[in-house]
Request: fold
Amino acid sequence: MVARTFVTGMIGAYFLSAGIQGYLIFRIHVIERVLLFAAGLLLIHPGAFTDVVGGILGATIFLPRWYRWRALKISPTADLIHSPKVKNQYHAH
Reply:
């Protein structure tokens, strides 16, 4: 119980910070920021139901970005403004 709460709290803090900063592997749009912020709050709040809902919500935003990053084989800390592979596709407008 304590380990699950710790792990979901850490993932929740990660999603919460991504929602505040507007960056999760690539830059994220406003609606994704709001959803990640909500997922982070749900994961931080202890409880099985909030963990499941927050995990699903956060995973729907995180996993597609992670798969794109792996397919492009770029560093998540790369300067996206100057990267020709992602400049037009992932640059926030």
Notes: The beta strands are 23-24, 26-27. Helices lie at 2-21, 30-44, 48-72, 87-90.
